[in-house]
Predict the 3D structure of the following.
Amino acid sequence: MVWTPLHAKIHRTIRSRHLFERNQRLLIAVSGGQDSLCLIKLLLDLQSKWGWDLGIAHCDHRWRSDSQANAHHVENLAKTWGISFYLETANQPINSEAAARHWRYQALSAIAQANNYQYIVTGHTASDRAETLLYNLIRGTGADGLQALTWQRPLTTGIMLVRPLLEVTRIQTEQFCQEFKLPIWEDSTNQDLQYARNRIRQELLPYLRENFNPQVESALAQTAELLQAEVEYLEKAAQQLRQKALGIGDEEDSLTSLLPLRLNRRVLEKAPLALQRRVMRQVLQQILTDAPSFEHIEKLTALIIAPNRSQTDPFPGGAIAQVEGDWIYLK
């Protein structure tokens, strides 16, 4: 086996970030593109050091005429490498990125649960992280949206989603595939500029590389990494403040989705605005079916210092927040 600097980098990353334990079952999501082929090759080469049991999963969205041939291509690779292969095909073509992502994670989770895999591993790179940061920034978001694509997160009970390549750029995965002559399946939809992410990839990032920073993808990915740690800290601090404002303990926190509930304004008004907003967002996340908007969070936050009897107009679903003395009531 040829041991490259990228092998060493990923080996160190997995160890230092505690992404996997030894002798675990890893389900690798492989589309056939350069990032996923780079990922599976790296994990196959590291397998002897870690004792993993690897499997490949492929999700056919049926949105390209060659999607079935793409699936066969990945299946043949799995056979060549002598590892288990799992295919999930959509019942009907999925035409939106968001719907495809939701279906894909559901399909991968089902395969993992049925076959006792503890981890689902994807080939998201620093380039994906940079694109996600730019995409969410353009649409309007806070720090949470800018730090999207984390190293790991629970997907379902007992199954962790892991992204080991978040410090590797797409240029590096392409070079790796060329070096090892890996048979990349070119996805024609990646060139379709009707998708905003493709315009970011094909037009915006090259422009930024050429005119502002040749290492812009790594720089943006590093920003996302810094924000991730800060978001984790702020979320924990906001959770503690919310529990104090609600007058509850950790073991009772699951009950706070029940209306009516009340928040102590005197507890909240001493806190920085950043934490006040996060508390209100956490509260709204528990009572709204969709993610709360900036406007929803702001009008609830404003009640912390509003006159007595002030109230909001109804939130989606009909809930209203009202000031009664030292308390904000949601009912």
